[in-house]
Structures are given as structure tokens and as C-alpha cells.
Design brief:
This protein is α/β, with parallel strands linked by helices. It contains 15 helices and 13 strands.
Amino acid sequence: MAQTTMPTREPIQRAFLVAAQVKGAEYRWGMGDSLAELAALAKTAGLQVVGETTQLVDEINSATFVGKGKVEELEDLHAELAYDVIIFDDELSPRQIRNLENRIADVNVLDRTALILDIFAKHARTREGALQVELAQYEYRLPRLTGRWTHLSRQTVGGVGLRGPGETQLEVDRREIRRRMTQLRAELQKVREHRAIYRGQRKREGIPIVAIVGYTNAGKSTLLNALANAHVLAEDKLFATLDPTTRRIALPGGTEVLLTDTVGFIQKLPTSLVAAFRATLEEIEDADLLLHVVDVTHPNAMQQAQTVDQVLRDLQIGERPMLVALNKVDLLPDPDVAVAASARYPHGVAVSAAKGLGIAQLLSRLESALTEAMVYMDVQIPFHENALVALFHKHGIVEGEGYDVAGTRVKGYIPRHLVASFEPYLT
């Protein structure tokens, strides 16, 4: 009797987490909170966390990140726990990775950046997303290439931190990798040019753009689904969505806007890595208004919100008009959390994206915020440019209109992104 052969499942890797902070230095996050987030990232990547350790140091060890005694402890714990991967909560230098791998045999040494890149590789669903992830992986790995990469048996296999480019790329010399990076940049440029055409069409239509931003897992995709019935993947995982999703909705007064869900931000994410995902960033840069989603149930809600504000400032888009949605209020165990959030964001709107609570109020506030972001203009539009008059009526607030031999005189407010179209006709 023939036996049925079942495919074997790749064994779950065991991970050990490490964090260190310099004594007396100021940190927005405590080591415990930061390690808890690192554990959630490891879980999202499919790892089993079997232990963790922390260390306060006088200074970061340039050779091994942590001190000599802590490295010896990690060796002993490896013998005891048989972990496969050791993950540091900060970015490691190539030298630190090399030295740690030499000290702790048969263990992959990763840092937070490598882990996040691995999660990005799992969740990139569009071609542009996949190209961006592959390029970011190469940029990160190129200076860190060692003999440890050559044990890969085939592409995309080899465990967390090694997903993405496989042995064909990682075993060749640096010149070949740089050639591939040049090719990826050229392909991405073509995709961006194609996307720029659509963004240009949207601008010409004059539809205001609202970009949803926030810390990863704050509920951005769930909120987009609630506002636009978008059916976007929404999971209780960090970085469940990577590629931007845009939907058209109508506000209570009839104004149409485009809502764009963007990749979540996270602490200790290098700006250079964020910049690699320009597709999402370009959506934020084009936005007339940012909708910042804050998970008020999270114990570090304020630190998460501050991290998002800082990343936006680092990207030089922190001055954009912003409305805050205080999400997951239906799950609040402690009213003091909501009080603290409201103190920081007195004009925030309390919502539950999952339950649909506060959505009507949020839509109304979105309309008000877009109006507040408008610019007053008094223009004389020639008759042959009557399409601009229609544009003013469709997307602006007309306070006065008249006609003479020169054309149509219109006074009122228009979205900031349309100002350039009307400037030639200012009275």
C-alpha cells in the first residue's frame, strides 16, 4: 500500500533577546518596554522567544556591544537553552556581529533592523514593495557579509534574518551585489515614475489627500476599513501591512477625499531604512492632512506617539496639518490612559475602529480640519479656463462670485495643494 508523503514543516527557531543601555543616558523607552516590543517583533517573524537579558553599561562595547562578562553569560545560556538566534535591541556594527558570531558558535546574530527587514520581506505584497525590501536588505547586509551567510541551501530559506536574497546573491562578491543594487534602483525609479503619473492625475482632480500615520499596530488599517470599507488586511501583528493602500471616501458635507494607509513607524528604526520605502513616504509628502492614529490602550501610548512625531520631523514633514484619532477606546482598562492622551492631544477624537465608535465624529472633524487647512484666494479666471471655476466649486468654499468681460471673479477658500493652479489669476 502506497504511503502518502507529507511535506515537512521548517522547525520554529528559538530566539534569545539582548538589550543594553548606557548608565545615566536619557532614553524615551525603558529596556523592559523595548524588549517587550522586540519580543512582539520576533513573534511576528515566526520565532519562539526562549529568554532575554539586559545590561547597564558605562559605554557600549565597540567589539561586542555588551561587556565581556555578558558575552560569557550568553555562551552559557546558549548551552542551556539551545537558542538558534540571538537578537540585539539596537543596530550592531559589522565588527560586533562578526565577533559575537565567533564567540557563540552555531548562532545567527541579528539586530533590531535585520529583524524588521525580515518582517518587511514577509509582508511586501506589491512588486514595488518587494523591490524596496530587497534593496534595503542589500544596503544593510553588504557591509556585514561574512562566511556565515554561505550556509544557505536555497533562496528564501535559512531562517529569520536571512529571508529574501538567497545564496545566489549572498555568496557572490561585493561587486556583483552592488550591480544588483544598481539594477534594483533603476527598476524602482521606473515604478516611481509610473506612480508619479497617478499622483499627478490626483492633484489635477483636486481631491484632498489624507494620509493615515501612526505607530505599528495602532489600528491604521482597521480605521481605513471602518472609514472606507476598504477590506485591507488588519491583524494584531506589528507591520501587518507594508504597501500603501488608497481609497476614496465622501465626507459629511459631500467633499471627496483620498485616504491612504501607510506603513507603521517604530522606535529605533533608522531614518535611512525608512527612506528606503519611498512609496509610502511620497504618499505622506503629498498629503494635505495627516491622520495620526494612537493606540490609547498601549502602556507606552505617549512614547509611541512621540516616536511618530519624531520620525515625521526627521523626514521633514512634521509641520503638516494633523488630526489625531485616539483609537481602541472600547478596550480601555484604565480611564487615566485616555485622560493622559487627551491632555497631550486636546483636539483628538476618541474612536474604536474595530467597533465603529466615534467614526461619524471623526469624519466631521476631518472635514473641519481640511477646511482649516485651506487658503483664502480672490481670483479672476478667464472664460477659457472655466474648468478652474468648476474645480473651485467642487473642492473649495465659494464666498463670492461675479462676471465681467475679463472672466469669472471667485472669492473663497481652496485646499492648499491647489493654490499653484490659481496663483496666475490672483486679483
